[in-house]
Amino acid sequence: MQFGKKKVSCNLLEKDNGLADDEREEAVGMLEESPSGIAMATNLPGTYSSMNMDSSNPLRVRTLHISSAILAAKSQFFYKLFVGMKESQQQHVTIQIHVSEETAVMDLLKFIYSNALSATTPTGVFDVLMAADKFEVVSCMRYCSFLLQNLHMTTDSALLYLNLPSNILMADDVQLLTNAAKKFLAARFVDITKFQEEVFSLPLLGIEAVLSSDDLQIDSEDAVYDIALKWARKHYPKLEERWEVWSSHLCHLIRFPFMTERKLRKVLMCSDFDPELASKLVIEALFYKDEAPYCQGSIAAEAGNALHHCYVQRAYKYRPVKALHFETPRQQCIIYLDLKRDECVRLFPVGRVYTQTFHLGGRGFFLSARCSMDQQNGSHCFGLFLRMQEKGSESFAVDYEFAARISPDEKYVRKHKGDYIFTRGMKVGCRNLFGVDWTTFLDRDSVYFINGILYLRAEVTVRQ
């Protein structure tokens, strides 16, 4: 089929917007490889038709002579258009575009001929991308996506890229652009507590990009949940709207298995949720927390790609733990803390790991693991400590015990025990939990790490 031999007049029409005639009819130079072209005109994007020049809303015409063969080779839109022209013996076709699209369409035609664009700004390139999608010029969409990924990105431009129409987002090359926009927003608001005012102003697509990040610098998943709750109440004041946005979007961003039991209980009582959804999320989280680490890995793997991130720990300031509470025969809390070998390596020489708060007898407690100095021989070693959060003058007496797994079975071996009366937020613990120096503790053949994980348990009981 030889499109180039078909004569098609090319008319670009635009609304009369008060410009002078010489401005409206500015010459546009195009290579003319054959006496053929296209006719484009109107303010109804994405359609083509014959124009009635007697319309009460007159349009201005711009004539271009270009090769229909080249257009058909680069654009499915024009290919199908010229096929229809041949079948109907039509010689003049009008393609309707809005006046605001003129610059982008002209740049698109330039790209079809030269594989280059005049646009250099993010807004200009973005407009060409939209025009390329409308006229199905895949190579130009790919090129625009590449340019936008490498141009300076801002919060506004990133949100613009995320808000592309769904049909454009389906293109693989454009998906790279939206992924870059998500990464930009995640990095821009990685220290989310410093930018809460800006975060609370983000639209849904923006908050999704931020809360999806594994690298958020935040105290705990409890804090992530609180931010999402506050954001939803601001943007969706109606309760039924919040139910919908939580069920369809936000609940998939919160990593409930790493929230504290106390906060999970608040989720159950929260009116922002569908009660059935809240119950499902909390039960799943508790089941996950109760499983052994290797079983947790299986749960995460079975969840599939869509939900796998829900079982990935972020860069929390306070380490998630599993806490079991008992009221009889005495008030007691058993805390399980698992640390990877790489995490322990990073503790040297003055690093520390703090856990989430757990509660006993109405008081808040947390564990801290760190590289300590053995006062007897001056060597570095692994230390584990219990701290009370409250700093009041009232004393609180506890018995405590630290244990660790040193064999593949599920049994823990006691390493240290004692009793203590807490006042004013003091701490108690053991500087050298395993009785060995730091090098021996971290040795590759160390018995303290099972499959690269250090398993610790702390029992804290209220003294009678």
In short:
By secondary structure, this protein is of the alpha+beta class. It is 39% helix and 20% strand.
* Shape by Cα distribution: elongated
Task: Report how far apart the termini are.
Answer: 95 Å
Domain count? 3
What is the fold named in CATH at topology level of the largest domain? Apoptosis, Tumor Necrosis Factor Receptor Associated Protein 2, Chain A
Q: Find the CATH superfamily of the largest domain.
A: Apoptosis, Tumor Necrosis Factor Receptor Associated Protein 2, Chain A
Q: Radius of gyration, Cα only, in angstroms?
A: 32 Å
Count of alpha/pi helices: 19
Ranges where pLDDT stays below 50 over 5 or more residues in a row are: 1-39, 41-55
Which CATH top level class of the largest domain fits? Mainly Beta
Judged by helices, strands and strand pairing, the structural class is: alpha+beta
How many beta-strand segments? 16
Reported CATH architecture of the largest domain: Sandwich
| Beta-strand content estimate | 15-25%
Your description of this structure?
This protein has 464 residues and is an alpha+beta fold. The protein folds into 3 domains: 1-97, no CATH class; 189-311, Serine Threonine Protein Phosphatase 5, Tetratricopeptide repeat, CATH 1.25.40; 321-462, Sandwich (Apoptosis, Tumor Necrosis Factor Receptor Associated Protein 2, Chain A), CATH 2.60.210.10. Helices cover 39% and strands 20% of the residues. It is built from 19 helices and 16 strands. The strands form 4 sheets. Strands 6, 9, 10, 11, 12 and 15 form a 6-stranded mixed beta sheet that branches. A hairpin with a 2-residue loop joins strand 10 (358-360) and strand 11. The longest helix is centred in the middle third of the chain and has 17 residues, at 172-188.
